[in-house]
Known about the structure:
mainly beta, two-stranded antiparallel sheet, two-stranded antiparallel ribbon, 0% helix, 28% strand, elongated, binds zinc ion
Amino acid sequence: MGTFNSKNENADAIVCPHCENVHGNYDEYLEVGDMSGEFEMECVKCGENFKVDFYSVVWFKTEKA
Ligand SMILES: [Zn+2]
């Protein structure tokens, strides 16, 4: 595990801005096919609501067919 910084920096997990609890399971909040958007969720640890902005990054790798 790396060190997460909730102070307006991007991370590859949802970090609660209140208590810095890391929410690894965010599938239920995302619509299939969404590339970006925002939603609100409640921290399972401290119970505070917070807003999440997200975007997806698509990686490509090619090889000879
Ligand atoms: Zn929290």
